[in-house]
């Protein structure tokens, strides 16, 4: 195969030396503190971070202590500077991480967020101490900005609201939303340029929404599913996965993953077919694929029904 | 046109309101008829570059029709080439915009810390709820809503009437009564009260307040007759570097709360080779108890224009914005008039005082969002995005408005520039103390004989300031002072000898913050005051980062349990929980709002022993 013409080679980045938890490490200029932690093998908790998107820097669970800084700083977003001295497991860091995961676990349904239980154990989080969770609020999409009913404190406010099943392809269950901004970034200027969704409202009432909370079929959504691909908590989910989970039939241990090439057009996106019981139940694309970076279009993402064995129509 | 729009059309009035502000559409790209543009649609980057017009366009529409309908939102999306979802996201960020039909007359009743806890606004709100109905419900073309602090704490309780329509009107009301509010609900619009004049007005020796109540705030001639524009001439003699030298020598630091050296800020922007540079006056004071910037803008608007011009000249800015909170209609009108007069007289524009200096100012109105006073949130708001702060670095002097080097100064900071330029930085630095130089404005309110905006030199003790304001209201006893506002902290009557300087405040574990001195007497229900502060932060959090978004809610819930006595575990457990929440908000929030949201509450627990005394509602 002939070599493709390459982009001009950039001069190698300058190396920056920083000290993390007493260990010195050199990383290329422009790296983040998270990159440096990864290089040292320091396991840093993340929730809103996605390796295919610019850091949203919203959840703050990755905060670290930088000597000389008044507050903690986010490892995912802050670039390394020469001679930074950083602590990733100090009392302050552990406290803020504990509170972030407690705040989320007490207000959001993290039941299918893979890392949530790990983080709660690791930082000794006790979300139950804020009280029993408040029930779902069907009016959450229509909260008046800057106003709320005074609480009595006997239940812990939550973001729970009824799941949105308004189309055949995917489900939006914002009870599971930690407001990481990734779906908005993927739908908008970082990938799809569709801009079907936004963060609406403010404060605790902020939520992901279409304009006027219209159903998806009335919105600008093109069903590329790239929002599902970046969602860290299962708030956005294939309808097929949602229905199987509802029937208690979703079982990842029985699933296989098969990489293939999307047959629809000539771009050649990689697909990973998630198959359970000889049915495709979900389609993803590898995040490290240099063309897709985890993204697909509606055909690659959802155009698999005809492959699945269909119940034969009666003659 | 490459954004997908809704199937909703604006009404004639909505279209007219938007077109009156943006001008008629000239291309099908932004909504013109095909026949009108010669079948040559143009737009693209130039249309998208108009995004910064979003907030003023929403204001223009809201003033005309009183709410933002799907058809109107869709038309704005088309005109500015912004996806409808994005317009919705921005619109729902602001408390003053309604996305549901709303009565053409809206009565906003302040029920925040000072009005509620020191002036009984909760009983006004209860009366309205009883006699009119729940807030938000329309009765004969009028509705009422509870409002966060309206910045009239020296004349509490306060209210604001907003009338939309062909001739929109906004009237601020002060020292309101239940009968006065019921009259508004009945369709009457009372005359606005006279402009608030600071109690020291006319006294000799004032530097910042000297023209207020003395010179006509609507007359440029009167401003000049009282020494106006002498400083700008002097600045031109000094040259940009000379002005910055005086500023550095004056040791002036920002009065907005962060106390950063102003001269260094100007110098950093002046040295930036990237152009253009922007000058922003932060006039979004919205913190409960704060009203000093309003006093300046209403009473001496030209001084702000002149100060901004000097700042822009020194730091190489050709364009300036005043970002003023939406709840200050009188200050807006006075500033607009001042800018127009200055422009007409060659004091703003392309050739100021025939010196070849170019600078102009645009007024930008906020729409009910305290967070937009945070400088990076302010940039986002002006640019037409949700007012969400971002991490620093990069700092505004490097990447500010539109990504360009930007000077951001608070109103009070800016008006200090005039005496510095006129009398020299060294003379200014001799006022006050070694490390806190110059005069300082304080918003004295609460249980005081003569509340208002006071000017004193740094180093004045808190006791002296309270005495200047006539002392605590008759027949009551001082219990505490909330210093620095909702983001400040409480101090006790034993600490009145505190010298009001940045360094003494810091040493005493408190802050001067936005200059609030809220006197709390024995009649004030302290737990309720804390609840009001907690509710304020919960409502005003932008919602971006978890520590602040959820922390402010959990803090308010814990306070509610303490007030009702139905605690989870012991009172001590709840106090420990509040301290834990506070520590995480202070350490891990993105911006100053979250970082200070527990400050007043924690200080009340620590210094006033509020709940340990068994005090509860």
Summary tags:
heterodimer; A: 315 residues; Ubiquitin-like (UB roll); 2 domains; three-stranded antiparallel sheet; B: 617 residues; alpha/beta; Glutaredoxin; Rossmann fold; 5 domains; five-stranded mixed sheet; 14% strand
Q: Any overview of this molecule?
A:
The complex is a heterodimer of chains A (315) and B (617). Chain A has helices at residues 33-40, 91-107, 116-122, 182-187, 226-230, 239-246, 298-302, and strands spanning 15-20, 23-28, 63-66, 73-74, 85-87, 170-172, 198-200, 207-209, 236-238, 255-261, 270-276, 279-284. In chain A, a hairpin with a 2-residue loop joins strand 1 (15-20) and strand 2. In chain A, strands 2-1-5-3-4 form a 5-stranded mixed beta sheet, with helices on both faces. The model of chain A has no long low-confidence stretch (mean pLDDT 94). Chain A has 315 residues and is α+β, with helices and mostly antiparallel strands. Chain A folds into 2 domains: 13-133, Ubiquitin-like (UB roll) (Roll); 170-302, ADC-like domains (N-terminal domain of TfIIb, Single Sheet), CATH 2.20.25.90. In chain A, helix 2 crosses helix 3 (116-122). Chain A is globular, with a radius of gyration of 22 Å. By secondary structure, chain B is an alpha/beta fold. Chain B has 25 helices and 14 strands. The model of chain B has no long low-confidence stretch (mean pLDDT 95). In chain B, 41% of the residues lie in helices and 14% in strands. Chain B has helices at residues 12-22, 45-48, 54-65, 70-80, 84-91, 113-119, 121-131, 178-185, 220-225, 230-250, 262-270, 292-299, 301-315, 329-344, 375-383, 411-415, 417-423, 425-429, 462-468, 502-507, 526-540, 546-564, 571-588, 592-596, 599-608, and strands spanning 105-110, 142-147, 159-163, 169-173, 277-283, 317-324, 349-352, 357-365, 406-410, 439-446, 452-457, 478-483, 489-491, 516-521. Chain B has a 5-stranded mixed beta sheet with strand order 7-8-6-5-9, sandwiched between helices. A 5-stranded mixed beta sheet of chain B has the order 11-10-14-12-13. Chain B folds into 5 domains: 12-91, no CATH class; 105-185, Glutaredoxin, CATH 3.40.30.10; 222-429, Rossmann fold (3-Layer(aba) Sandwich); 439-521, Ubiquitin-like (UB roll) (Roll); 526-608, NADH-ubiquinone oxidoreductase 51kDa subunit, iron-sulphur binding domain (de novo design (two linked rop proteins), Up-down Bundle), CATH 1.20.1440.230. The radius of gyration of chain B is 24 Å and the shape is globular.
